Amino acid sequence: MTKEHSVSKPDSGAKRTRLSPDERRQQLITLGARMLRERALEDVSISEIAEQAGISRGLLFHYFPTKQDFHLAIVAHANAQLLERTTPDPNLDPFDMLRDSLERYVDYVSENRTSYLALLRGPASASPELVAMVDAHRHAQVDRILSEAPRLVENADRPLLGLAVRGWIAFVEETTLTWLREAPITRDALVDMLVISLPALALSQDPTAALHP
Amino acid sequence: MTKEHSVSKPDSGAKRTRLSPDERRQQLITLGARMLRERALEDVSISEIAEQAGISRGLLFHYFPTKQDFHLAIVAHANAQLLERTTPDPNLDPFDMLRDSLERYVDYVSENRTSYLALLRGPASASPELVAMVDAHRHAQVDRILSEAPRLVENADRPLLGLAVRGWIAFVEETTLTWLREAPITRDALVDMLVISLPALALSQDPTAALHP
Fold first, then answer.
1. Hey, is the C-beta of A45 within 8 angstroms of any chain B C-beta?
2. Nearest CA of chain B to the CA of A90: how many Å?
């Protein structure tokens, strides 16, 4: 990869470090993701990030050709972080596993309230690339749940169960976003509701399905 | 209101009728709503609508100052139509009422597939005015369900039930949109799933709630 040019302005005040291209890329994404904790994606500023990294705007654009590319890289990072944060703990039984994952989900989005609301309902949420990325994230969640489903439901009609789980993800997002905005119930009541809703939806679809806690 | 000017081009071929301002406004919305049955909102063309109505583009903009105003009026019309089409039939018992409404919902969105997908997931779905309008429509649905809820659940925790019903609307939209795109199950299986899911979600939230069919 191309060698970095140093910033021309000598007294910018920011600390400058020579990083490898991979390290620099990672640093910029990390700074962007940190900014995303307090702001909507559309308000993540290229200039501020460049300043924090001690590089020029031009150099940032060397790593990410457009602002949109940079924003997508930040969202990919945040999505991966959320998936990792909500990884099911295989040492727990299915219901505790579900509760544990959902508690971590609710806490993560509470910490990232502004950007989560913006990502799913803000102006940026209409960009086709972002929609595709958020959708891929939902698919990953659905697949993870379905891979655990044999332990939860037997004799399930798979296409029906797949559709119900996809709908459940929308249920979780909508109730959680409403809760973040209006807080009509406590965090624990929200978690209880989310935990109960998955088996309620999945099991109601197949009266012959047996529950295996 | 201002008197209509007639179209200057004499041989446009379209039939011209002198309508009152209200009639003209209604005619344009009806033509727009008809076009919306086959196209996404962003593809509803001002020029084509004006031609169909036999008026100039300029006159259309007299009724709707911007394209966005015209599009919003069409969506308001379509939302009102959907609410009307899914009005619960008070002569039915609660479960049949729910099934009947959901069948009419699924059939309506099947007939308006392209525009429904575009409205909820397309590029137009990001305009703040449209988001507010779609959200108001969802609220109307939630209120209608909650007004029937006393017949379904007793002792319900109202804020919790309100949140669950809001989440259920998202469940219905997501499963129906996925079904419109991928058709993983039959129409009847989808309707069954939607009918079962509401009491499953609502009742699971309150183990002491009694069902009154």
1. no
2. 26
Tens of pLDDT along B152-190? 566 667 888 899 999 999 999 999 999 999 999 999 999
DSSP line for B192-209: HHHHHHHHHHHHHT-TT-
Q: For an interface test with A, which of B204, B208, B211 has the most A Cβ atoms less than 10 Å from its Cβ?
A: B204
Whether pLDDT at A47 is above 50: yes
Q: State pTM to two decimals.
A: 0.84
Q: Which of A121, A125, A185 sits opposite B160 (nearest CB)?
A: A185
Query: Where are the domain boundaries for CATH 1.10.10.60 in chain A?
Result: 21-69
Report CA-CA distances (Å) from B175 to A10, A143, A171, B120, B126: 57, 16, 10, 13, 20
Judged by DSSP in three states, A211 sits in strand
**A132 vs B: CB within 8 A:** no
What residues does CATH 1.10.10.60 cover in chain B? Answer: 21-68
- Which residue of B lies nearest to A172 if distances are taken between CA atoms? B167
| Cβ atoms of A7 and A54 closer than 8 Å | yes
Is residue B184 within 8 A of residue A162, CB to CB? The reply is yes
Domain B86-204 has CATH 1.10.357.10: yes
Inter-chain residue contact A121 with B128, CB threshold 8 Å: no
Neighbours of B131 (CB within 10 A): 17
Question: CA nearest A152: which of A84, A188, A198?
Answer: A198
Three-class SS of residue A38? Answer: coil
